[in-house]
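Hi Q.,

Before the meeting this afternoon, I wanted you to have the beta-D-mannopyranose prediction in hand. No need to reply - just skim if you have a minute. The sequence and ligand are here:
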Amino acid sequence: MRYNPDNCYRTLFKRYEANPILTCLDWPYPVNSVFNPGATMVNNQYLLLARVEDRRGFSHLCAARSANGLTDWEIDRQPTLAPWPERYPEETWGIEDPRVTWIEDLGLWVVAYTAYSEAGPLVSLATTKDFINFQRHGPVMPPEDKDAAIFPVKFKGRYAMLHRPVPASSVRKHIWISFSPDLKHWGDHQVLMPARTGGWWDANKIGLSSPPLETSEGWLILYHGVRETVGGCLYRLGLALLDKEDPTRVLRRSDQWIFGPEEPYEKSGDVGNVVFPCGWILHDDDLSIFYGGADSCVAVAIASLSEVLEFIKRCPER
Ligand code: BMA
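Predicted structure with the ligand bound:
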């Protein structure tokens, strides 16, 4: 396959000039780092549910709210959702990387997060109606599995979830889709989008970034590809499009990454060369991704959704 310069992205997502928007210095209590936030709108405010790493190395989730999604963040004075290992032993080493989905049917947000158990990372769910009180639903995927998010609607009466299991017997780690009648019991597991092989930027290991976004063209998927190099891993982002009625069908997938570590706050930090969004918010035509930079801070980049859709429609069919 040839490289097609006509379909090179220029800059789809433009960084906010005052990035990063949140760091550990903004936190009302001592923490090591603040990154990989889930995102949603609550009462007309942007709400980021950030992963916050304490100085033991364990993470919890903490909410930050702002009217414009850029400045004047009000941060909860204490952890919003803290690991509860006494009751939920899978949370022994913390909870990480929340993806937040509003489920109209239930009148609830579902938070899919990584629980870091002694047996490895796994997927847990919690629901909330206010980001103050949460109901835990416990683990829904055994270890090792992470990068999960729920679709906001049901398909033929079933919820659907994207996630990324890690098989012991293969170096390749793909994005899977699974279905559930009740958010608790999951089945019909299948590979949705495989990691590529060889020299590709997204060879061997990929994972969902933000939750699937419903658009006029289908479900827009933002995912990360992890490239292993002699200098360490590079986390970059690609796009895909799924059929609106049948999310097991991948319609398009970008050959090129569309966003990668370029700025100092993305290239250096606790884990350098990482951009890692767990949420995005659409406002009119503005699509904002909220992402962790180098496992240390939170930043935002904004694209025009219509340009993103124009781009993905020019990407190869699957
Ligand atoms: C992944 C997750 C992310 C993290 C990334 C880079 O496996 O743990 O939370 O940002 O690695 O360290």
